[in-house]
Amino acid sequence: MSYNHLTLTERARIEVLRQENYSLRSIARKLKRSVSTISREISRNNLNQSYQAETAQKNYETKRKLCGRPTRFTPELGNIIKYYLKCHWSPEQIVGRLLQNQICFKTIYRWINSNMINFELISCLRQKGKRQKPKETRGKFNIGRPISQRPKEIKKRNTFGHWEADTIVSSRGKSKGCIATFAERKSRYYY
């Protein structure tokens, strides 16, 4: 169920109509509000048996500021965040590595924008740009040495157990078949 809060003009009309001794029902009818809304508003803000719209509005605004969840910001937490921001960490990295399950990275941005964190060097924040992609490692053998760096004893083919591997890719057909060959250096045996 949604509802609208009373505005200052509605509160002023309530004040005028109360001074003219209108009943709660007639005030509610004129403002097109519920009788219980008008009754609660008057009982909440009835000072010295008189309703004043300006004080009622001020009370409403102070209570409105206090409502909601309290902030988790502390000066110590602000100093920690400020230190890592100056070290060129992004708010996402700070939350991911240091403050897991404590705050969200959007909260850090909100604190910076509302000046809760005195962060004068906005240039330290990362800017949107090209994302780094991980390097492609498929099709590359990172193990072993190149043939040019082979030890001398392998070149002489005196000992058994030194293998060479190679792949051949077919250029015909849709499947682009591949053959792997393995050769032993001393016996020259191929698999």
UniProtKB/TrEMBL annotation:
Gene3D superfamilies: Homeodomain-like. Residues 2-45 form the Transposase IS30-like HTH domain. InterPro entries: Homeodomain-like_sf (IPR009057), IS30-like_HTH (IPR025246), Transposase-Integrase (IPR051917), Transposase_IS30-like (IPR053392). One of its GO terms (cellular component) is cytosol. GO terms for molecular function: transposase activity. Keywords: DNA recombination. GO terms for biological process: DNA recombination; transposition. The keyword Magnesium does not apply. PANTHER family: TRANSPOSASE, TRANSPOSASE INSI FOR INSERTION SEQUENCE ELEMENT IS30A-RELATED. This is IS30-like element ISSau1 family transposase.
